[in-house]
Amino acid sequence: MAAPGGRSEPPQLPEYSCSYMVSRPVYSELAFQQQHERRLQERKTLRESLAKCCSCSRKRAFGVLKTLVPILEWLPKYRVKEWLLSDVISGVSTGLVATLQGMAYALLAAVPVGYGLYSAFFPILTYFIFG
């Protein structure tokens, strides 16, 4: 029994014992060397390496085009019924913010407001295609 204000001992936790069994094959040195021997790779000439690297197939050309213009990657997979409404809403809100921001920056720079409209429209269009 602990005295008031004194320390009491923490309860004892039960001990758990775990055992693991690791099963590995037993090798002789000769068997290990045969299974894990290094295989020598044939060296290719510079011409063969360049021919493989610089060859162009239809699949490879389309892959390069997809990396440059990502819309070609995702547009065929686009689910119109599920995603179009939310994309239109986000596009309109982003466009409004960018338009107002472009007009405000044009006023701050003391240039005609039309320049601010150009600065709002074309970057978003470019991002849509290449982003």
From TrEMBL:
GO biological process, one term: transmembrane transport
Keywords (A to Z) from UniProt: Membrane, Transmembrane, Transmembrane helix
Membrane topology designation: Multi-pass membrane protein
Subcellular location: Membrane
Keyword Ribosomal protein among UniProt keywords: no
Main subcellular location of this protein, as a coarse class: membrane
Entries under InterPro entries matching the protein: SLC26A/SulP_dom (IPR011547), SLC26A/SulP_fam (IPR001902)
SLC26A/SulP transporter domain residues: 84-131
Membrane-crossing segments per the record: 113-130
Pfam families listed in its UniProt record: Sulfate_transp (PF00916)
Keyword flag Transmembrane: yes
Gene Ontology cellular component annotations, sorted alphabetically: membrane
PANTHER family xrefs: SULFATE TRANSPORTER (PTHR11814)
Name of this protein: Solute carrier family 26 member 4
Organism: Homo sapiens (Human)
